[in-house]
Structure formats: C-alpha cells, structure tokens
Amino acid sequence: MTTAPRQAAGPDATKSAPGPAPRRSAPQRHPRTRNRHGNRILTHLLPLSPALTLLLLFLAVPIGYCAYIAFTDLQLTGQAHSSFVGFANFRTAFKDSEFLNAVWLTLVFTVLSSLIGQNTLGLALATLMQRASKPVRTLTGAIVITAWVLPEVVAGFLLYAFFRREGTLNAILDWLHLPSQNWLFTLPILAVSFANVWRGTAFSMLVYSAALNEIPKEITEAAEVDGAGGWRRMWHITLPMIRRSIGTNLMLNTLQTLSVFGLIWVMTRGGPGNKSQTLPLYMYEQAFQNSMIGYATAVALLLLLVGSVFSVIYMRLLRTEV
Question: How would you label 46-66 residue by residue, b for 16+ Cβ within 10 Å and e otherwise?
Fold first, then answer.
C-alpha cells in the first residue's frame, strides 16, 4: 500500500492568521522643523503687523470700550461717577415705544432705499447704459455720480428744497394742475428714502456695470439666436452670472444705509414727531439731548447686531453652491 508523498512545507504552504497591525508611533517633528514652521508664520505675519496694530487700536479697543459703556449708567452731564447696571439699558430699550418705532422705521428705510431702490435702480441704469450710445452713457453717468459725490449735508439741503411745501416738487405738480402737499410732513419716511435712493444709486450702478461687462457676449448672443427675450435673458443668464456682485452690493448698501444720519437730520430731524426717526437719530437724541450716554451706547450695540445679522445673511448667500 502506497501513500501519497507529502509536499515539502514551503514558506507559502501554511499562512498564519493575520494579526493586528503594529501601532506606528506618531512622527515627531525635529526641533529644526518646528523652528522653520514658526519662522514661516512669523514671516507672513510680520508685514501685516502695522495693519493689525491699527485695527486693534482704532477698531477693537473702541468697540470694546463702547461695549463696556453700554452696561453702565454713564451720563453726559450731572454725574461724577458711573456704575455698572448690567442689562438694564437693553431692557429699557425694548420697553421703550420710541425705540421700537425707531427700529421699525430703520427697517422700512433700509428696505425701501437700499434693498429695493438703490439695488433695482442701479441694475436698471447699468443695463440700459450697456445698450446706450456713448453721449447718453456719459451724461447719465455724470448726473448719477454727481449726486453720489455731493456731501451728505449738501444733498440733504437739496432734497429738502425739493420736497418742502414751497419746493420744486410742488411747483411741478401745480404746473401740471395736480394736488400738492407738504411731503416732509405727510410722508417723511418716504421722502428721506427717496433722497437716499437719489444719492446712493451711483454705487450700485458702478458695481453692476462692472459685473455686466464680465459676462461673455457669446452667451447672450447665443440666447438671442435661440429666441430668448430680454426678460428671459435677464432672469436666466444675467442675474445668475452676477449673483455674487448682487450679494456684495446688497451687503455694502445695507450697512451704509443703516448708519445714515446727516441726510435725515437735515431734511426732517426725525420729525414730524418721530415719524422719520431712525436708530442713528434716536441714539443722537438719547446721547446728546437727554445726556444718556450709556443707554445710547447700548442702542448702538443693538444697531451693530442688526448690521451683523444682515452681513451673515448676505455672506451665506455669497457662498458657492455645491
């Protein structure tokens, strides 16, 4: 009886069960490597140090000091020392009907003059100037930019002369045999909103003109060949391609509009009563007429919070879609 010969056991004849992989110790950086990395960071930060120092001195420190004042009862006159009052100023603000009215009028003024007025009119002017002749573009640009470069106080006096009872607007309406009225008394928030649109549209027009010039002409020409009308090209081609410019323009215009003071002060001083009193005018009244510096600074922080909320919303809209 014969048996099959055994095969010689080689290295591949039997395989042991795989065990856990040995742990690898984390690579340790050589001291010279760490030093080089630190020197590289220092080299990049050193040219920025003057700008960072200026931002710290003229931005971070004042904001921090204002945040501290907002929690005190500091007054402009009649007080030797201020004391810490916590959130009392903020609770007082939200219980004050005049503050709530100022918040509402600030939102109305911002929506009418910035989100709707300057943004829409600026885009319309930029679109029309793309197709207009050179003399028309030059004249339109000169008129719009002149309103923008005028000092705020001068622009306020011009619009006051336009809207007052014996002003230019009522003279035109009388010449057309249409009823006139005292616009600064009956519709003050609409009057100051129109004034801000007239003064600030140039910025939106310049932003959108630059954005429209970046759109390749081949795309719009191909859409025209396919039979797309003007509105369809605007909605499906122009607006999506300048989306980031729209978001940037809205953010900058909104932040600028929230802080408008001189224009409204010259035209109405927040009146009649408080019908055009936005938050900047309300803060001025509380700080320099009622001498309540701590309370006015708390209102300023709330206005800063409103601007931050708008900025966060616009920054999220500006993010690239995945």
Answer: eeeeeeeeeeeeeeeeeeeee
- C-alpha closest to that of 72 among 292, 313, 224, 278: 292
The phi, psi pair for 84, rounded to 5°, reads -80, 125
User: Which residues in the chain come in under a pLDDT of 50?
Assistant: 1-17, 26, 321-322
Q: Which CATH architecture has domain 112-276?
A: Orthogonal Bundle (1.10)
- Gap between the terminal Cα atoms of the chain: 76
| Confidence (pTM) | 0.79
Radius of gyration in angstroms for the set of CA atoms belonging to the chain, rounded to a whole number: 32
The CB-side HSE value for 31 (13 A sphere, CA atoms) comes to 0
Encoded tokens for 169: 């607007």
**What is the residue type of 290?**
N
The pair of structure tokens assigned to 159 is 């619009």
96-131 pLDDT, tens per residue?
999 999 999 999 999 999 989 999 999 999 888 888
Per-domain residue ranges of the chain:
112-276
Cα–Cα dist 224/234, whole Å: 12
